[in-house]
Design a protein that fits this description.
The protein is of the alpha+beta class. Helix content is 46%, strand content 18%. It contains five helices and ten strands, in the order ααααββββββββββα. Strands 1, 2, 3, 4, 5, 6, 7, 8, 9 and 10 form a ten-stranded antiparallel β-sheet that branches. Helix 1 packs antiparallel against helix 4 and helix 3 runs antiparallel to helix 4. The radius of gyration is 40 Å and the shape is rod-shaped.
Amino acid sequence: MKARGSLALMLVAALGAGSAPLSHAAPPDRALSSPTASDIEDLRRGVMAEERAVRLRLDAIGKETKLAEARLLARGRAYVEVARVGLLPVGGGFDALIEHAARLERLHRGLEQDLALGKRLAAERLTLAKKLDELSLRGATLDTEYAVLSRAADVLRSAEEREQAFAQAFEGDNHTAIYGAVGPDDPTVSADGFAALRGRLPFPIAGRTEILSARRTTSEGPGLEMRAPLGTVVRGVAKGRVAFADTYADYGKTVIVDHGRRHYTVSANLDTIDVEVGAELATGARLGTVGDTGSGPRLYFEIRVGKDTVDPSIWFGI
């Protein structure tokens, strides 16, 4: 959770810097806290609501502007007609002259009002257009924040699921298959199944290999590193069912095979994984190929009985 919070704070600093404050935005103390994808989504809905309101107002301004322009045109024509000298009342006396002047003044004031309204509408339209651009940018920023937080959450969730799957691979209750003897065609293995191979377990890679004792930081017991050329085929040492086939912590790409009766083998540091979880494997089945994470190509191999990691060298007779 601490890493998740740090990521979110960096996102707020990197993506939110310089953004125009919104009326619906969280107060400063909340903005400095760790936002979640849900928080970002709420802000995005607020921005979308503002965008809709701005667009509605722009539509209304467009209609008002058309009416104002039509009214301005009509009054302008009337003003020109009334202002013509030829339209001054003839023989109407002083009262007619006063009425003519008053009408001309009314038209003049109306024209000034129409012009002022047109300027106000144009200024408001410009302001709203800028506001719409700001909201669009803010929305895009929030979309980016939401996508990054969602991806981060997916990565964390995926890591947690892999860790859980790795641990559950050694839970015998999760696997219904029971593996005993390899079969009547192999009388060298007794009814004890995988346990009968102790001291004479076949190696998972063929050919010459240099074997070193090793241990992963997340393991409580020893393992072996078997140095071999990159891409060397890694095979199952006994029949079983694939309980895990994925990337895990410092093991890298890993395949765990359940050999029955709570016996498991772990083949890690793979370059490729060529099996899927649940697959039934025969002895010698291809699991994947040897990988290289930077310290030279090698296979990391463990044997576990239940959740306990046991010394594999005893099983190989070395």
